[in-house]
C-alpha cells in the first residue's frame, strides 16, 4: 500500500479540494479513534461513515476513491485538508504500526486546539468591535467637531490627520509582512524555525511545540523497537520539508560520530530538557517510554501557556482602547475649555 511517506505534502496545494471544516475534522478523528478501538479496519470505517452525517457526499466520495486507489489513512486526511502536523503524525504512526494510539493523541490535540481557538475568539471579538467603533468615532469627530474648534492642539491635529496615520501604518505593516514572507521563503524550513526560535515572545511557544511533537514521535518509534538509524531514515524521506531537513541533518551528524542527545542539544528550537531526557533515557535503557511521557507533559505545558496567553490579549487590547478614549475626550474638552477662557 502506498503510504504518505512517498507522497509530497505540497501536492495538496495543487488541487482545488474543499477543505473539511475544523470542527468536522475533530469529530472525524474522534469517530475513527473509537472505531479503531472497536477493531474496525479502514474499509469498515469508511463504510460506517456513510451511515453518519459527519462528512458530506463530496468528502465521503473522496475517501472512498482514496481507498480504491490504495491510499493510507494519512493520505486520506491530507486530501481532506488536515494540518500537515496531524498528517505527519499519522504517517509516522503508520511507520511504527500504532495508528490507534496516534488517533487518540490527535483527538486530544484537536480538542485542546479547539478550546484555545474558542477562547481566543471570545477574548478578542469584543475589543475588536470596540476598536472599530472608536475608529468610526474618531473619523466622525474629525469631520463634524474639529472644524468647529478654532484653536488647534496636538490632539486635535492628531485627530485631523488620523486617517493618514492609519493608512500609512497599514501600508508599512503590509509591506513589512510581504518583505518578510519573500525573504523567509528563500530559507529552508529548518533555518526558518531557527529564526523563529530567536524571537522573544514566540520562542517559548515554539520550543514547547517542537519539543512536545518530536519527543512524542521519537518516543513512539523507539518504543516499537525501531533503531535510531531507521528513525532518521524515515524522517529523511518524509515529505514534510522540516522533518526531512532535520532527518538529513541528524543522519549526517550521526555518521560523523555525534550522539543523539548532543545533536538535539545543538538545535535552538528544542528545550534544553529534551537533550537531558534523551541522555537519561539512554542510560536507563527506557528511552522510548521516557520520551513518550515527557512529550505528553510538554504538550500539557504548551496548551496551558497558550491558554494563559489568551488571558493577556484582552487586557492589552482594552489598554489601547482606554488610551484612545482618553485622547478623544482630551481632544474634545481641552480646546473647548481654552475657548471659554479656562486655564490649566
UniProtKB/TrEMBL annotation:
Intracellular or extracellular location(s): Cell membrane
Cited InterPro entries: GspF/PilC, T2SS_GspF_dom, T2SS_GspF_sf, T4P_ComGB
Transmembrane portions of the chain: 123-145, 165-184, 312-334
Signal peptide (residue range): none
Pfam families: T2SSF
Residues covered by the Type II secretion system protein GspF domain: 29-147, 215-335
Superkingdom field: Bacteria
GO terms under cellular component: plasma membrane
Location (main, coarse): membrane
Keyword Cell membrane found: yes
Coiled-coil residue windows: none
Keywords: Cell membrane, Membrane, Transmembrane, Transmembrane helix
Membrane topology value: Multi-pass membrane protein
Family statement drawn from the similarity comment of this UniProt entry: Belongs to the GSP F family.
The protein's name: Type II secretion system F family protein
Organism: Streptococcus porcinus
Amino acid at each position: 500500500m502506498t503510504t504518505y511517506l512517498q507522497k509530497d505534502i505540497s501536492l495538496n496545494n495543487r488541487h482545488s479540494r474543499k477543505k473539511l471544516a475544523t470542527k468536522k475534522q475533530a469529530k472525524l478523528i474522534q469517530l475513527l479513534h473509537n472505531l479503531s478501538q472497536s477493531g474496525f479496519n479502514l474499509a469498515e470505517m469508511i463504510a460506517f461513515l456513510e451511515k453518519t452525517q459527519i462528512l458530506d457526499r463530496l468528502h465521503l466520495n473522496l475517501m472512498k476513491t482514496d481507498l480504491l486507489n490504495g491510499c493510507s489513512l494519512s493520505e486520506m486526511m491530507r486530501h481532506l485538508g488536515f494540518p500537515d502536523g496531524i498528517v505527519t503524525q499519522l504517517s509516522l504512526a503508520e511507520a511504527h504500526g500504532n495508528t490507534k494510539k496516534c488517533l487518540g493523541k490527535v483527538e486530544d490535540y484537536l480538542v485542546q486546539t479547539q478550546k484555545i481557538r474558542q477562547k481566543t475568539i471570545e477574548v478578542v471579538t469584543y475589543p475588536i468591535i470596540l476598536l472599530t467603533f472608536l475608529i468610526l468615532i474618531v473619523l466622525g469627530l474629525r469631520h463634524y467637531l474639529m472644524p468647529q474648534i478654532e484653536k488647534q492642539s496636538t490632539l486635535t491635529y492628531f485627530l485631523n490627520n488620523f486617517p493618514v496615520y492609519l493608512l500609512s501604518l497599514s501600508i508599512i505593516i503590509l509591506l513589512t509582512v510581504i518583505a518578510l514572507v519573500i525573504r523567509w521563503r528563500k530559507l529552508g524550513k529548518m533555518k526558518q524555525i531557527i529564526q523563529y526560535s530567536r524571537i522573544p515572545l514566540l520562542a517559548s511557544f515554539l520550543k514547547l511545540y517542537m519539543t512536545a511533537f518530536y519527543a512524542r514521535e521519537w518516543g513512539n518509534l523507539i518504543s516499537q523497537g525501531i533503531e535510531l538509524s531507521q528513525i532518521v531514515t524515515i524522517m529523511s524521506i518524509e515529505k514534510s520539508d522540516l522533518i526531512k531537513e532535520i532527518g538529513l541533518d541528524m543522519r549526517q551528524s550521526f555518521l560523523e560520530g555525534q550522539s543523539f542527545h548532543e545533536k538535539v542539544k545543538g538545535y535552538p528550537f528544542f528545550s534544553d530538557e529534551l537533550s537531558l531526557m534523551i541522555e537519561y533515557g539512554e542510560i536507563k535503557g527506557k528511552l522510548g517510554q521516557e520520551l513518550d511521557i515527557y512529550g505528553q507533559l510538554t504538550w500539557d505545558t504548551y496548551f496551558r501557556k497558550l491558554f494563559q496567553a489568551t488571558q493577556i490579549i484582552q487586557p492589552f487590547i482594552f489598554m489601547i482602547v482606554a488610551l484612545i478614549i482618553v485622547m478623544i475626550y482630551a481632544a474634545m474638552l481641552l480646546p473647548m475649555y481654552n475657548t471659554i477662557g479656562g486655564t490649566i
